[in-house]
Amino acid sequence: MTDTIGAEQAQRDEQPETGWWALAPADVTTRLETDDRTGLVAAEAARRLAELGPNALHSAPPPSVWRIALSQVLELMTLMLIAVTIVSLLIGQVTTAIIVAVLVLFNIITGTQQEVKARRSVDALAKLQTPKARVMRDGVLLQIDATGLVTGDIVDLESGDLVPADGRILRSANLETQESSLTGESLPIPKGPAENTETTALADRTSMVFQNTSVTRGTARIVVVETGMRTQMGRIASLLTQVGDKKSPLQLELDGLTKVLGIIAWSAVLVIVLIGFARGQSLDELLFLATAVAISAIPTGLPVFVQSLLAWGASKLAKERAIVTSLNDVETLGATSAICSDKTGTLTLNMMTVRTAWFGGSTYRVTGEGYSFDGRVLGTSDEAIDAPTLGLAIGLPNDATVSADGDVVGDPTEAALVVLAARLGIDADQARKDYPRLAEVPFDSDYKFMATLQRIPFRGEQRLVLIVKGAPDVVLKRCTTMLDETREVVPVASDAATTELERMSATGLRTLAIAARFLDDADEARIAADPMASVSELVLIGIVGIVDPLRTEAKDAVTVAHNAGIDVRMITGDHAVTAGAIGAELGLGTGAVSGADLKQMTDEELSRRLPDLHVFGRVTPDDKLRLVRLLQADGAIVAMTGDAVNDAAAIKQANIGVAMGSGSEVTKQAAKLVLTDDNFATLVHAVEIGRIVYSKITAYLRFQMTQLLSLIMLFLAASAFSIAEGVALFPAQVLFINFFVALFAVFAIAADANPPGIMDHPPRDPRIGVVNRVSLVEWLVYGAVIFLIALVPLLWGPDAPSPTEPTASMTMAYVVLGLATVLSALLMRRTPESGLLAPIAAVAKILVWPVLLIIASTEIGFLQRALGTVSLTGWQWLGCIGLTLILLVVVEGDKWFRRRRAAARASRA
C-alpha cells in the first residue's frame, strides 16, 4: 500500500496541478469532456473508474500483535537473555535456565500487552466517511457511493452534504462550505462559480469545493476535477508517506545503553573466563562461572521495569484525558522543548462569540462564554442594557439555532448573533415564529449581506422593517442615518463607525454591521416582491465584534509552559491579523507572519528569525511541515497539535504529534498523543507527566546501574583474588535479587511522590541523555560502595566461600547485596534531594516486602535449597545491617555535598 501511495505521489510531482479554479466553468467541462446538463454516459464513467481507480484515500494497516511481539524478541537485551538460557541448559543448570526463560517470556508478553493496549487506546484509523453523491449520468440524477465518482462527473450539493471529491463550481446559490479540516480556516467560506486567479492560495479558492469538507449553506452543481489520492485531501495524505517513524529520545538512549551494557557484560565474562582458564578450571566450571557473571551483568529486569513505568505514565495520562499511541511516547513528552499549537478548539473554544458591540456611538462589553445564554451586554459603567428591539434586530436575520445546552445548527457566526440576542432578552427561535419573514434577500458572497422583511413592534406600534446584516464596509455605504443612544434617528457618524471598525479589527475581531429600514405598510407587496431594491437609505443600528474566545485555562497553560522553558508557537489557517491578536492575548509575544511571507523566506532566513516568530497565520500543510523540520534541525523536541487533515503530515513529523479527540481520523492515525478534551492545557499537563515519568526512569536507571556495576566488580574481584573460583554468588541468588527483590524497588520508585517544581526547570537536553559524565560518576561511586561492602563477608566472613556448596560467607554477601538493593531504592529515588525526607511512608510500606523476602530466602528450607543459602546468626545479621548502612552514609553525604555546592553557585550568580 505504501508503495502505491509513493508511486502516486511521484506521479503527482511529475505532473503539475491543473489550475481548475482559474478556468471558466465552460472551459473546465470542455477539458474534462463532459456535459453540465447530462453528465457522463455510464460506459465512459466505468472506463474512467477502471483507469483512475476508486475515489478513496489509502491508509497503512496498524502492526499486528505478532509483529509487535517479534520486535520485543529482537531487542538486544532479550537476545542476550536467550543466549544465557541456552548456555544454562547446556551446562545442566536447569533451574537457572527455567528462571531466565520465564523472565524472557514475561518481558516479551508484558511488553507486547502494554504496547498493544497503548495502541488500542486510540481508535483505529477508521475509513473516512464514505458519503453518497447525487451524480448526473446519462441525463438522469442518481445517488451512488462517492467511491464510484470519476473526473468529469456532474454532482449536485446542498446544505448538510459532505463534499465527495474535489470539484469546480459550475453554478451555485448562497453556497458556503466549512473547510477547517483542510485549510484550518475556522469560519465557513462563501463560494461561487467566478474564476480565481492562477496564483490564488488554496484557502482562498472560492470557485472550488474540496473532498470531505462540508456544505453549511446553499446549493451548487459541480464538476469533479480530482478524485482519491489526487484530491487535496489525498495530497496531504501522501505527505505522510514522506515522514518516517522515529524512535523516541528514550528509545535511542536505552538502545545505546543496552549496547554499552552488552559490551561491559561480555567483556567481563571474557576476562573472568580467561582468568579461570589460566587457573586451569574445567570447561563446565568456566561455563557455570560465565553464566553467573552474565546473569549478574545483564539488567534482566530493565525492559519490563521501564515498560511498567511507561505504562504507569500512559495510564495516568489517560485519566487526564490524554491517550498515547505508544508507551515510549510518554517519555518523549517530558523532553518537549517547543510546542506548535493550532488555534481553533485547542487554544480557543471553537465557539464564535460576540465580545464587543458598538450601538448609538457607544461601545458595549459582552460577557458570557461560548454558546451559553448566560451573560449580559454592559455599558461603560458596567450597567446591563435592556434593549429588546435591538435584540430583535440582531436575532431575526439569522437561520442558525442554538439550544439551551449549546448545540448549534447552522452558521457559527449567526449562532453568535443568536446568543447575543438572548443576552439582550430575545429568544431568536421564538421571535422568528412570532415575527415571520415576509420576504428575504439570502446572503451571497457577491453583495456580502443578508436582509429579512418583518413586521416588529417599535415604540408601541407594529412597523414594517427590512433588517440587514453583513460586511461593515458594504452595509455602511448603504446607510444614511443611525440610531443614537436614545434610539433617535440621526445622521450616520461614518468617521466614528470607521474608527470603531479599525479598533475591532486590530484586536483580531471579525466584524458585522446591523442596519434596518423602516417602510410604509402600503409598500409591503412591492417590497416583498423585490426586497433587494429596498436595501438602501438604511439606518445603522450597530457593529458587533466576534471572536472565537480563548479557553479560560489556555493563558495559564502558556505561562506554565514558558516557565518550564518550552517555546510555544501558534500555527493556524486563520488570517495573521486575527492570529496575532489571539497570540498577544495569550502572551506568546510579538512576531506574527503569514504563510505568503513564509514562502518568501529561505530555510536559512526562517531559521534565523524563528526565535522571534511565534504566530503563523494562513499557513499551508507544507508550511507546517517545514516549520516542524526546521525546529527539529535546531535541536528542539517538537510537539505539534492539530485536528484537521491538513495538520497530519506535520503531526507525524513532530517528535510528539498531538491530535484532538474531535479531529479527523487521519490526524489521529498520524499522532502519538490524542487529547480527548481538545484542550491545550491538557497537553501542558501531559508534558508535566512526561517529565515525572522520565525522572522516575532516571531514578530507576540510577538504581539498576548501581546494582549491575557492583555485581560486575564483585565477580571480577572474586576471579582476581581466587574467591570461590570466581563464583562470588550463585546464579539463582543473583536472579532472586535482580528480579524479585528489585521488583519492589521499581514499585517504590513509581509510587514516590512527584518531584517538587518539576515544571520550573528548562527541558532536559536529549543530546546529553541518561548516560552522561555526571550519571556515570554517580553509578560508579555508588556501585563501588555496594561492591566493597559485599566483598567484606567474602574476604573475612565466618567460613570460606565455595563455588559448589552453600556457605555463611556467601550468604552474608547475598544478604548485604539484597539489603543494599532495598536501601538503594529508598535513597536513589530522587537526586540531589535526600531520600530520607517525607513523603516516605508509601515507599517504606512497599520496601518492607523485599526485606521479608530476603529473610525468608535464608531461613525457609526450600528457598535455601533453591538459592544456595544458609541460616545466619543474630551477630551475622547485625554485621550485614552495619555494612549496608555504610551505603546510606555515602549516598546521603554525596547528595548533601552536591546540594551545598549548587546553593553556593546560585548565591554567587
From TrEMBL:
<dbReference type="Pfam" id="PF00689">
    <property type="entry name" value="Cation_ATPase_C"/>
</dbReference>
<dbReference type="InterPro" id="IPR008250">
    <property type="entry name" value="ATPase_P-typ_transduc_dom_A_sf"/>
</dbReference>
<feature type="transmembrane region" description="Helical">
    <location>
        <begin position="835"/>
        <end position="855"/>
    </location>
</feature>
<dbReference type="GO" id="GO:0030007">
    <property type="term" value="P:intracellular potassium ion homeostasis"/>
</dbReference>
<protein>
    <submittedName>
        <fullName>Metal-transporting ATPase</fullName>
    </submittedName>
</protein>
<dbReference type="Pfam" id="PF13246">
    <property type="entry name" value="Cation_ATPase"/>
</dbReference>
<dbReference type="GO" id="GO:0006883">
    <property type="term" value="P:intracellular sodium ion homeostasis"/>
</dbReference>
<dbReference type="InterPro" id="IPR006068">
    <property type="entry name" value="ATPase_P-typ_cation-transptr_C"/>
</dbReference>
<dbReference type="InterPro" id="IPR044492">
    <property type="entry name" value="P_typ_ATPase_HD_dom"/>
</dbReference>
<dbReference type="InterPro" id="IPR023299">
    <property type="entry name" value="ATPase_P-typ_cyto_dom_N"/>
</dbReference>
<feature type="transmembrane region" description="Helical">
    <location>
        <begin position="808"/>
        <end position="828"/>
    </location>
</feature>
<dbReference type="InterPro" id="IPR050510">
    <property type="entry name" value="Cation_transp_ATPase_P-type"/>
</dbReference>
<feature type="transmembrane region" description="Helical">
    <location>
        <begin position="736"/>
        <end position="755"/>
    </location>
</feature>
<feature type="transmembrane region" description="Helical">
    <location>
        <begin position="708"/>
        <end position="730"/>
    </location>
</feature>
<dbReference type="GO" id="GO:1902600">
    <property type="term" value="P:proton transmembrane transport"/>
</dbReference>
<keyword id="KW-1133">Transmembrane helix</keyword>
<dbReference type="GO" id="GO:0005886">
    <property type="term" value="C:plasma membrane"/>
</dbReference>
<dbReference type="GO" id="GO:0036376">
    <property type="term" value="P:sodium ion export across plasma membrane"/>
</dbReference>
<dbReference type="GO" id="GO:1990573">
    <property type="term" value="P:potassium ion import across plasma membrane"/>
</dbReference>
<feature type="transmembrane region" description="Helical">
    <location>
        <begin position="76"/>
        <end position="109"/>
    </location>
</feature>
<keyword id="KW-1278">Translocase</keyword>
<dbReference type="GO" id="GO:0005524">
    <property type="term" value="F:ATP binding"/>
</dbReference>
<dbReference type="Pfam" id="PF00690">
    <property type="entry name" value="Cation_ATPase_N"/>
</dbReference>
<dbReference type="InterPro" id="IPR001757">
    <property type="entry name" value="P_typ_ATPase"/>
</dbReference>
<feature type="transmembrane region" description="Helical">
    <location>
        <begin position="875"/>
        <end position="891"/>
    </location>
</feature>
<feature type="transmembrane region" description="Helical">
    <location>
        <begin position="776"/>
        <end position="796"/>
    </location>
</feature>
<feature type="domain" description="Cation-transporting P-type ATPase N-terminal">
    <location>
        <begin position="19"/>
        <end position="93"/>
    </location>
</feature>
<keyword id="KW-0067">ATP-binding</keyword>
<dbReference type="GO" id="GO:0016887">
    <property type="term" value="F:ATP hydrolysis activity"/>
</dbReference>
<dbReference type="GO" id="GO:0005391">
    <property type="term" value="F:P-type sodium:potassium-exchanging transporter activity"/>
</dbReference>
<dbReference type="InterPro" id="IPR018303">
    <property type="entry name" value="ATPase_P-typ_P_site"/>
</dbReference>
<dbReference type="InterPro" id="IPR004014">
    <property type="entry name" value="ATPase_P-typ_cation-transptr_N"/>
</dbReference>
<feature type="transmembrane region" description="Helical">
    <location>
        <begin position="286"/>
        <end position="312"/>
    </location>
</feature>
<dbReference type="InterPro" id="IPR023214">
    <property type="entry name" value="HAD_sf"/>
</dbReference>
<dbReference type="InterPro" id="IPR059000">
    <property type="entry name" value="ATPase_P-type_domA"/>
</dbReference>
<keyword id="KW-0472">Membrane</keyword>
<dbReference type="InterPro" id="IPR023298">
    <property type="entry name" value="ATPase_P-typ_TM_dom_sf"/>
</dbReference>
<dbReference type="Pfam" id="PF08282">
    <property type="entry name" value="Hydrolase_3"/>
</dbReference>
<keyword id="KW-0547">Nucleotide-binding</keyword>
<dbReference type="Pfam" id="PF00122">
    <property type="entry name" value="E1-E2_ATPase"/>
</dbReference>
<keyword id="KW-0812">Transmembrane</keyword>
<feature type="transmembrane region" description="Helical">
    <location>
        <begin position="260"/>
        <end position="280"/>
    </location>
</feature>
